[in-house]
């Protein structure tokens, strides 16, 4: 009986010793880090407020009962690690806490900047960026109207290590340009062509010249500057509406007149503001005059980009000769053997071959005038009218005859009675010029 009691007492004592010494072994533990300069703080069980610094490098902590015994280990440039050591669990005497994830404290000079990395997007001027061990993190810092900055941080042994903190300054500006013509070409300082839309980079402290060009339209030129005193717009809509018409004429020596003023030979560009019109007249001897009004009413198909014109040959020109006797009084030289009356008869016989209607014939006055003869060319767009006038400056017994071939031209469709449309022409139809040659030949 006594042996039994002794055995029970021995077993109880052994259990008590184990319990006491086991509890004593877990009442304190040592903490180490992979960074000798790491700092240790104790925390409350429910939050990280009011941490209490307990040491650097390695520390020994006493584990409190009924507590999570939370410890935070920190080092500049690394993500803090929080570890819990509840006394209800068994712990090694020495515990290694690894700081492996890198931490970058990012600060931006704009309070409303956007910091984006992965699927995370933050708004503000500061962010803590964690780069996990053996990983790379890319992020974008942006703000509307500013050129964004892309940052890449590595946490790999063979790569450049990230900084502890980084100040990011967004100063270069971006102008979001949108042109009403999708095929317009945008160039910045003569380079970097873009079509229709574009983001224009304006470096801080400088200006850029932007040219928006499109065939058939007047170039739009903009200058954007960025400095401490001024900033370009965040976005701008460009409306191209002033037009350019290029005339290319054949033959190449034709004259081009715009609104009554001669502007070019063969080729010429005419600028036309929206809502305006201009008149173009193209002339070249031997060809039909081209005239047309052009108006810019704001529609794309209002005006051609290039007006290629092949002038139509003037049939009247080809059927005539230049001569000084047209519209001039030409005295006739008559042989002495030909009497005045015979000369008159010869003139009448020659003239009536082409002018079958004579309005006035007066031998005694020595005066003859024919009716007008009309000839149409180029399908009625060119009308030539001619008449002949014979006069005698002396008596009827004298051969002082003179002849005048009146040659006049009207352009376009005209009424024969519209005298105002006919102008003296310095050319004569060949058939009338031959009459003059015959008159001179027969009277000499």
Instruction: Kindly give the count of domains.
Output: 5
Average predicted local confidence, pLDDT: 90
- Helix count equals 4
Mass-distribution shape: rod-shaped
Largest sheet: 7 strands, antiparallel
**CATH architect. name of the largest domain:** 2-Layer Sandwich
Strand percentage, roughly? Answer: over 45%
- The whole-angstrom Rg is 53 Å
Low-pLDDT segments: 1-7, 9-25
Provide the fold topology.
Layout: H1 2-26, E1 28-33, E2 39-43, E3 52-56, E4 58-62, E5 70-74, E6 81-84, E7 94-97, E8 102-108, E9 114-117, E10 120-123, E11 126-131, E12 135-142, E13 149-155, E14 165-168, E15 173-179, E16 185-188, E17 191-195, E18 197-202, E19 206-213, E20 220-226, E21 235-238, E22 243-250, E23 255-258, E24 261-265, E25 267-272, E26 277-283, E27 290-295, E28 306-310, H2 315-318, E29 320-322, E30 329-331, H3 340-351, E31 358-362, E32 367-370, E33 373-377, E34 382-392, E35 401-411, E36 423-424, E37 427-429, H4 430-442
Parallel strand pairs: 1-7, 8-14, 15-21, 22-28
Antiparallel strand pairs: 1-4, 2-3, 2-5, 5-6, 8-11, 9-10, 9-12, 12-13, 15-18, 16-17, 16-19, 19-20, 22-25, 23-24, 23-26, 26-27, 29-37, 30-35, 31-32, 32-34, 33-34, 34-35, 35-36
């Amino acid at each position: 009986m006594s042996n039994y009691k002794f055995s029970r007492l021995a077993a109880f004592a052994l259990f008590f010793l184990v319990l006491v010494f086991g509890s004593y072994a877990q009442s304190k533990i040592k903490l180490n880090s992979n960074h000798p300069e790491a700092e240790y703080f104790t925390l409350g069980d429910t939050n990280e407020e009011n941490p209490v610094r307990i040491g650097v490098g390695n520390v020994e902590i006493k584990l409190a009962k009924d507590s999570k015994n939370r410890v935070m280990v920190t080092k500049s440039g690394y993500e803090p690690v929080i570890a819990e050591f509840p006394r209800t669990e068994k712990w090694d005497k020495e515990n290694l806490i690894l700081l492996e994830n890198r931490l970058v404290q990012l600060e931006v000079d704009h309070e409303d900047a956007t910091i984006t990395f992965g699927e995370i997007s933050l708004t503000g001027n500061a962010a803590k960026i964690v780069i996990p061990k053996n990983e790379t993190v890319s992020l974008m810092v942006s703000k509307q109207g500013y050129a964004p900055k892309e940052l890449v941080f590595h946490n790999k042994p063979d790569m450049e290590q990230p900084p502890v903190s980084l100040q990011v300054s967004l100063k270069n500006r971006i102008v979001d340009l949108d042109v009403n013509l999708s095929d317009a070409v945008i160039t910045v300082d003569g380079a970097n062509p873009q079509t229709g839309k574009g983001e224009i980079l304006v470096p801080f402290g400088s200006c850029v010249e932007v040219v928006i060009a499109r065939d058939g339209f007047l170039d739009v030129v903009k200058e954007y500057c960025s400095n401490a005193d001024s900033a370009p717009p965040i976005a701008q809509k460009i409306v191209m509406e002033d037009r350019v018409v290029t005339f290319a004429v054949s033959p190449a020596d034709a004259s081009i007149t715009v609104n009554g003023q001669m502007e070019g030979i063969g080729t010429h560009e005419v600028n036309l503001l929206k809502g305006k019109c201009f008149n173009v007249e193209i002339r070249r001897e031997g060809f039909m005059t081209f005239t047309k009004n052009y108006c810019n009413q704001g529609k794309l198909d209002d005006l051609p980009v290039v007006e290629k014109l092949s002038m139509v040959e003037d049939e009247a020109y080809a059927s005539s000769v230049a001569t000084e006797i047209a519209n001039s009084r030409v005295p006739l030289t008559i042989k002495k053997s030909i009497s005045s009356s015979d000369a008159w008869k010869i003139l009448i016989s020659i003239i009536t071959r082409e002018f079958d209607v004579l309005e006035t014939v007066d031998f005694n006055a020595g005066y003859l005038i024919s009716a007008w003869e009309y000839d149409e060319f180029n399908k009625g767009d060119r009308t030539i009218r001619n008449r002949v006038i014979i006069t005698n400056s002396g008596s009827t017994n004298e051969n002082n005859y003179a002849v005048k071939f009146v040659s006049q031209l009207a352009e376009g469709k005209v009424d024969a009675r519209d005298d105002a449309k006919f102008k003296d022409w310095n050319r004569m139809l060949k058939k009338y010029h031959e009459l003059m040659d015959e008159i001179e030949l027969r009277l000499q």
